[in-house]
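Retro notes
What went well: the complex prediction finally ran end to end.
Inputs used:
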Amino acid sequence: MTEETPNDGLTGETPNDGLTVRDVEVRIAGKSVLGPVSLSVEPGTVVAVLGANGAGKSTLLRAIVGLAAVARGRIWLGGAEISDWPPERRVRAGVGWAPEGRRLFPGLTVAETLDVAAPGNAASRAARIEAMLQRFPMLADKRHETAWRLSGGQQQMLAIARAVIADPPVVLLDEPSLGLAPVVRDRVFEAVRTQADGGSAVLLAEQDIGRALAVADRVVVLSRGRLLLDWPTEVAIGNPNFEQALIGA
Amino acid sequence: MIEAAAQLVVNAIALGAVYALVALGFVLVIGAVGAVNFGHGELVMLGGMVAVGAAALLPVDTALPGLVVLPAALAVMAIVGLAVAGIAYAPLRHAPPTSVFIAMIAVGLIIQHGVTAGIGPEPRLGPPLVDTGVLQVAGIGLSHQQLATIATAAVLILAVHALLQRSRFGRRLRAAAQDPEMARAIGIPVNLTIAVSFALSAALAGAAGLLLSNQYLVTPTDGGMLMLKAYVATVIGGWGRIWGAVLGAFAIAVFETLVAAWASFLVAEALLYLGVLVVLAIRPQGLFGEAAGRRA
Amino acid sequence: MSGPNRRELVYFAAAAIGLGGVVGFGDAYTVRIATLVGIYAIATIGYQLVFGRLGLLSLAQGALFGIGAYSSALLTMKLGLPAPVGLVVAGLVPAVLAALVAVPIARLQSHYVALATLGLAQLVLLAATNLEITGSANGLYGVPPIAVGTIVIADGLAMLGLVWALVLVALVVSRIVLAGGRLARLATLRDAPHAALTLGLNPVPARLGLFAVAGAMGGVAGGLQAHGLGVVSPAVTGFEVMVTILTIAVVGGRGSALGAVAGAALLVPLPEFLRFLDGSYLVAYGVVLLAAIVLVPRGLDGRLRERFPSRPPRLPAAATPARRRRGKALIVDGLRKRFGGVTALDGVSFSVPAGTVVGLIGANGSGKTTTLNLISGLERPDSGQIRLGGVPLGDRAAHHRSGLGLGRGFQHPEMPDGLFVLEAAAVGTRDRSGAMAALDRVGLAERAGALVSDLGAAELRRLDLARALATEPEALILDEPAAGLTGDERAALAVLLRRLAAEGLAVLVVDHGMDFLMPLADRVVCLDAGKVLAVGTPEEVRRDPAVVAAYLGQWVAA
């Protein structure tokens, strides 16, 4: 299993404007479960993180949000190093996270969910909520519906909307297609691409490899906590080493 | 006959209103931090004592003494709530849940015996909310105290409802109660919401104590029974469900009033405990709770 | 039974000094306090069995204490029976009552256990305060002192001697109850409930037994107090007694019988030392409890254990395992399971013949863990059959399946607190040499004398496998046993699993990597969305277009 890196995406020592992760390692009970992993996500691009369960995709995203203790390594948001910041601070600085399984607040309505995540005063929050409902038409007439009543696709849209309502420069999405019908998945991935096109740096952990590759600019494969490859999408597609990495991972 | 029944109904509603305040405070902490506050009954008692003490500071002919004292009682008890959160909950955030149970038992002990040691074990009379008059309506005696109790409790419950449902802070508090980690990940200050939950819970307890202190007197040993009733209300209404607990509290009040009138207060109490035990024996998850999953 | 360890010597030395001092220099008052210490020690030693070993926050021990007091008092006063008989009944009545409520209470979630036991205690208090027979609120006066024949144990030193002799009895009983591997099994039932079931441990007899013993000790303590004081008041069933017992248990160290004695020695005289605070000495109790739970959560015994850790168990020689076992085929037929609105399994069928390794793969949510849970009996299928060695498992409880030859490994194994590796591995079998052999096979033999808490995550997974192997299963189902292992460790695991199959076992392995399963499995079953997508050799499944499509997505297959 060769680790070819035709273009490793890290340009020198200066972090880029988006998300930069360098040599991050997460340990549980003394054993390394992730890393060391390095990658970067430029603004306006989507980087897909692929790999089987337990490969470390969620751990990586949690480490970036600040919910998994990082034993080694550094993380930058734009030019600012956020390695030691608590999650609340990272979120306020501009990291949006839609976790695996959505984790919506079951008793809150769509509007309430968006309201608690939106920054600013009442007027600006209301404006942002309107903007989200327009951007995600699946939610448009569900404003006062409680989260647990929504369909799977609507819930996923709400989770994404909650993650992006504050217009964060970095967006982390963990398996947004999980449990959704193919047609709904298409809409979810459209939303992902739109978010990147709007300027965000999007890191997308996924198991729906086909759709992930369709929207991603770069693709990273993790296996048992290690980074196997980090290639531009067009290089990965059709590459037999890439397919090997996925099936064997 | 009808008058007697109507009187009972009024008594039940007035009692239910107070029990609802107690249950509401109790369930707020359960929802916010998953902790059972065994000392909650003692907080109610303490509120009653604070009311007694504050009323003693008022000039003798003050009108609406209880209502005048209410804001002070709320404020003092809110501070007590923050102290309880800081001393008995915060250090045990990462400890197993039983530790918090035990710490709260300790808090209850300290409050109960502290009050007994400080001012003695005798029952004390708290200030009436309005005055001690009685309104006669169609043969039913409605004491001003009962009417004011119902009104005051209703206002407080509605205020809490408004806070939780209609304010941004209340929404954030609910979100943090439902999923603290996710709440942090969208920027909600979870430590603050927890502190506020404790303060609010204690304030409501204090108000309940004040409301009870005139008709039922305040005795330092009252706490245990009150907490037990709030606990039972959560079994009825569903663990952690706020409005379920409120309804449960009303149900308990109605049950108590009716059974006490038909037999005795003692029988009412005994039947209440028996009832809860039977419910738990048949449905270990409570009346409206969901059966716990057993995914490995 | 092994000889006393250093911790126990410390306790006994302290007790000898304390009691010696009281007997030699104490006045009548001190002797009475020391007697009371012994009484509470007995009640708390019993409580530790429920509170510590079962892990239940019961608040009924005070009520059981009171029931014992009333029982003995009434029997001796109204029926004129001799006090020793009264004491026996004082032990039996609460024991029976506690056993009656043991099973329903243990089914409750932890936040309701306290409520249920509190409710029971309140009922007892109401009965004591209001029934004629118990003397209502005044209680009973004139309870006769304990007399054996013509010997009356009325005076201080004799009573002191009797009580502390019974403390010793309580300690011995507590030790016997936990002997023979029961301590390890109870810890596993408490801390690793799912694993415990799959290892064949049945929680019900343990609960019944411990509740009964705890009730008996509480009751005997209450009886002793009744005869010692000559008075029984309803307060004896009230919350004060319960709080004292709880505080002693926490300060002494949750679960520790000797700690209970030490805690009683500290806390019962405390009000006397604090008399100078007048009424506020009871506040001090609350402060002590709070301080103990916050600052010293493991109590005196916990601290003592840090200074004088337990000696590791003697390691037996590893038994040579039978080279050829029968092995039982595992057949899954048409399994269906829904959780709420979600269909987890939709007609899954496959077989694991004896002597083979079958891999089970599939994406997150495809139903793999649900399948394993159904096979081990932790969940019931909505429809479908599971047959082990031709015998349908049907409704058989999970803890019976181990006896039929089924072993299970978990993805995130729960591990019992406070045990040594060998003890944790041996819970499913009576045979420690067999457990030693199992540890050897997974490569943990050198760690057999270490504490479970000192093991790393990957070692814990190997321990999980060892405890399953120690039950000598004929079919083994494993949930991601290779996760978190290094390349070398994974290779060693694959070798072990192949060897087990060669010995005749049917082995079902859930895993994610074809790189792990390729050299290992004879056949692979691929699940997708609750259905079987493909079955075949690893090579066939890997090249199956349906599998490739599911993994790589529609556009690649097209």
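What we learned: The first strand of chain A starts at residue 19 and ends at 28.
What to try next: split runs per interface for comparison.
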